[in-house]
Amino acid sequence: METVSVNKAHGGVQGVYRHDSAATGTSMTFAAFVPDHEPGARLPVLWFLSGLTCTHANVMEKGEFRAACAEHGIILIAPDTSPRGDDVPDDATYDFGKGAGFYVDATEAPWSANFRMRSYIEDELPALVAAEFPADMARQGITGHSMGGHGALTIGLRNPDRFRSVSAFAPIVSPLHCPWGEKALTGYLGQDRTTWRKYDACALIEDGARVPEILVDQGDADQFLSDQLKPELLSDACRTAGIDLTLRMQPGYDHSYYFISTFMPDHVAWHAERLA
Amino acid sequence: METVSVNKAHGGVQGVYRHDSAATGTSMTFAAFVPDHEPGARLPVLWFLSGLTCTHANVMEKGEFRAACAEHGIILIAPDTSPRGDDVPDDATYDFGKGAGFYVDATEAPWSANFRMRSYIEDELPALVAAEFPADMARQGITGHSMGGHGALTIGLRNPDRFRSVSAFAPIVSPLHCPWGEKALTGYLGQDRTTWRKYDACALIEDGARVPEILVDQGDADQFLSDQLKPELLSDACRTAGIDLTLRMQPGYDHSYYFISTFMPDHVAWHAERLA
After folding, report:
1. SS3 call for B271
2. Is residue A38 a part of any domain in this protein?
3. B4: in domain
4. CATH code of the domain containing B186
5. Residues of B taking part in catalysis
6. Could you please report the per-residue DSSP string of B122-134?
7. Residue B2 domain-assigned?
8. What interface predicted TM-score (ipTM) does this complex get?
9. Chain A residues touching chain B at CB-CB below 8 Å
10. Does A256 fall in a domain?
């Protein structure tokens, strides 16, 4: 693991790191904030998965999470949203290819060679974080925004033993039922929609996946609310399954980091309580 | 005044606005955060002047001021650092020309036609803010970073009746005594260094300018500390003049927004106390 940059911030260290990923076959970059801590201490870890077009840098620069992470003594890890590099296949649109990995292991050519973000986030990067940072991997939470909210929900639902807490900001709750999801999962996984179900939070719940509770913040002025995000589908699935969903519709907020940063301290505190 | 964008954030509105400036002869863009407030209320105003290479957007995205401004009920105005546009003269280097206005009224050709940032910040933009926002112009404070810290100190010192509170992050305290300042002021004002003194915080103090107190945060790992920033010159000037300078050397912090955002809540609270 190579250190790209480190900056002292809010008493801790905001770092950017690069490593060669076996999962994606590329170099991968991620951001990690480690608060000030006692020597030898092991801190809980909150994962933040980012949305379409983002890298590790967007939330690092605009997320306003460091004050809260410092207050609660939580490490925040912000991975990239896809493999990168000249040899990685891409698509001219913003919602497929680079910057749009959708946290799946692609099975369709040419994507399957590199677009293995599920394995990267679920297996490879946690092992690296455990080895390189003062992280207590028995205390992990996960959150994310939009496509990254989809990632947080699906990875959280598939791994309830790993994550004690799952939240999301304006998540895509069902790729099976929105244009972004249909385009991306057709491309990465093919036409057989049964293979998509493990990458769809609502379908995972319908198929038996369980977490005790979920926190979601959603702006009611979000331009993607009705055609892409559809939080009511998650509400229905959680109600049927008996999952305690707290869905907060936030009046006047849109899909931007101005929305995320406003409610970030709430999410960090909510995770901190569950990771204590 | 034209609205470029508005986003709800921390209960208030983060806006970006554009207007035709008589001072610079160009279109100018600035950011304004207006917290939630009672109808008819007039809020104190904190000006944030940005550093070299910045626009209005850097602090807006990375400054982490909104939570504190919402808590204290303060408007924050973030102007651009120079005139912009294809017709505006420029220089190939980062520390002169566009993005490097140094908050002076240039007297040398070709800069004097547009680089009139002193008049813009001191006269034109305040009038616009007073007219367009719920601002109590009797309660203004000013701060800034690096070149913008120079701007905040010099504008604050020249206008003690307008600003009740003056602070800075890692400011250039004496353009007369650093390479950035010597280059820029030679270009904008010419070889006669006596004309520079009204744009030099230390010289202004030596020449009799007074404010009751100044707060400065400065990282001790700042890469520009010893050759450009030289806070000891401000300490010496304030000590001689009897100005109450609080200079906090922050261990391990650099010149970046990771430093600024860490201490931003302190500065907002400090100004709020003085603008109450």
Report:
1. helix
2. yes
3. no
4. 3.40.50.1820
5. 146, 222, 255
6. IIIHHHHHHHHS-
7. no
8. 0.95
9. 7-11, 14, 61-62, 64, 66-67, 219, 221, 252-254, 256-259, 261-262, 265
10. yes
